[in-house]
Amino acid sequence: MTRSILLSPPDVGPSEAAAVTRAVESGWVAPVGPELTAFEREAAARVGRAHAVAVSSGTAALHLSLLAAGVGPGDVVPTSTMTFAATANAIRYTGARPVFVDSTDLDGNIDVALLGSVLRRLRDDGHRIGAVVPVDLLGHVVDYTAIGALCDEFTVPLIADAAESFGSRHRGRPVGAFGFTSCVSFNGNKIMTTSGGGMVFTDSPDVAERLRHLATQARQPVAHYEHKEVGYNYRLSNVLAALGRAQLQRLDAMIERRRVVRAAYRDVFDSVPGARVLGRAPQDQQENCWLTAVVVDPHRAGWSAPDLAQALAAADIESRPLWKPMHLQPAHAGSDAAVTGVAEALFTRGLALPSGSSLRDDDLDRVLAVIRSVAG
Ligand SMILES: *Cc1c(COP(=O)(O)O)cnc(C)c1O
To answer: How far is the CA of 138 from the centre of ligand 1 (A)?
Structure first.
């Protein structure tokens, strides 16, 4: 019996168990407490931001950020079509309409030139553009410099969906440092986890206060329960914040392991015609390598991404197609979209491979052996 190899399982051990025990024994078993405060302080320091607000999920981080930016019914919000549904869902929660923008072939991230033309068209058509929400696909960082310049030109807040890219950098600056806010996820499959959770980073004390207010049912600071607007129950538990602090201590080591995994895949696919690892060349080491994906041109390769997925599954190894683009999702049918076909091609030809930091060397050898048997 061999053991199952998963795509990106949580990587937790004794230090996380000790942290959770410490939080429980302290008596702070609530969405408030010293671990929560410390987790926010430590995470903010890591990305070089003045404020961090810990919430119950990455989706909540996006939702609150959009609300804090004043996004609401009637607004349009350009975002990447190649993303997890949470990005589009959070926009829809506010009553705004997402406008899906296609990808670049290099890394699957939003096509910045296309985004520029979408912003011009929306403005010329008289729409109110509530925000721009780029997504760092699989940890590949978008060009925050170029997108930030576009947002400045159109005076639109940039809300970064950095759910997949915590620990990555753009031009040396940590992800989380960009935009009106940056949102990360600590879901169980992400680069670091609180089992479920997320965080918003911002430099504005007013925005941080607004986020905390909305995340705690918009309760007014008076003794009785007074609410002037509709709020949400979105704060992270103090117990889970303790888990997050332990993960944060190990984040660099976990990223390092994922880089080793990516390098091993790259070694194999570099010599396979018709196959490439999604994303930029590795020399700059700016990426957290959350998931490594291969993109296969079946005509040149003689095999396809689904062929590889099937062979891996037969060996009890999990793999997964890239996100199905949002403009093809029934839930978002009828949405405005600027489509070039690149994201759809990546969806058809891409496959995410086991990339977890707890992947052992012998696990990796098993995966590589299956890849060689299909691609060899
Ligand atoms: C995981 C993810 C989210 C949502 O995070 P949750 O913590 O699962 O709510 C949002 N956007 C992207 C791109 C993600 O991958």
So the answer is: 11
- Predicted local distance difference test score (pLDDT) of residue 284: 61
Are the CB atoms for 139 and 160 separated by under 8 Å?
Answer: no
Over residues 238-264, the pLDDT tens digits come to 999 999 999 999 999 999 999 999 999
DSSP 332: G
Mean pLDDT (the chain) is 96
Please tell me if the CB atom of residue 109 comes closer than 6 angstroms to any atom of ligand 1.
Answer: no
Residue 135 CA: nearest ligand 1 atom is 13
Q: Is 285 left (phi over 0), alpha (psi -120 to 50) or beta?
A: left
CA of 162 to the centre of ligand 1 (A): 8
**Residue 108, ligand 1, Cβ within 6 A:** no
Q: Which amino acid is at 68?
A: A
Among candidates 218, 209, 140, 219, which has minimal Cα distance to 181? 209
How far, in Å, is the centroid of ligand 1 from the Cα of 161? 8
Whether ligand 1 lies within 6 angstroms of the CB of 84 is answered as yes
pTM (2 d.p.): 0.97
The end-to-end CA distance of the chain, in Å, is: 26
Q: Is 87 in the pocket of ligand 1 (CB under 6 A)?
A: yes
Measured distance CA(77)–CA(100) in Å, rounded: 8
Assess whether the C-beta atom of 164 lies below 6 angstroms from ligand 1: yes
- As a whole number of angstroms, the distance between CA 347 and CA 376 comes to 23
Provide the CA 255 distance to its chain's centre, in angstroms.
Answer: 15
CB 149 within 8 A of CB 115: no
Report yes or no: 78 and 119 within 8 Å, Cβ to Cβ: yes
